[in-house]
Amino acid sequence: MSDQPGRAIVEIENISKHFGTGAARVDALRDVDLTVRAGEVVALLGPSGSGKTTLLNIIGCIIDPSAGRLTLDQERVFDDGWLRRDLRRLRLDKIGFIFQFHNLLPFLDAKDNVALVLKMAGKSPAQARQRAIELLDYLEVGHRRDAMPALLSGGEAQRVAIARALANTPRIILADEPTAALDSKRAGIVMDLLRKLAEEQDACIIAVTHDEKIYDRFDTLFHLRDGRLER
Amino acid sequence: MNLAYRDVRHNLFRFVLTCLGLSLLMAVVLAMIGIYNGLVADALNIVKAPKVDLWVVESGTQGPFAEASQIPADTRDAVARLHGVTAAGSITYQTIEAPFRGETLRLYVIGYQPGYPGGPETIAEGRGLERSHFEIIADRKTGLVVGDRLRLGRDRFTVVGLVEDTMNSGGDPAVFITLRDAQQLQTQLAPPAQRVLMARGDGNGPSAQSTVAAVIARLDPGANPDSVAQTVRRWKHLGALTQADQEAILLQSVVDRAKRQIGLFLGILLSVSAVVIALIIYTMTMEKLKQIATLKLIGAPDRTIVGLIVQQSVALGVVGWAFGLILILLIKDGFPRRVVLEPVNAAALGAIVLGVCILASGLGVRAALKVDPATAIGG
Ligand SMILES: Nc1ncnc2c1ncn2[C@@H]1O[C@H](COP(=O)(O)OP(=O)(O)OP(=O)(O)O)[C@@H](O)[C@H]1O
Ligand SMILES: [Mg+2]
Question: Is residue A54 within 8 Å of A224, Cβ to Cβ?
Answer without folding.
Answer: no
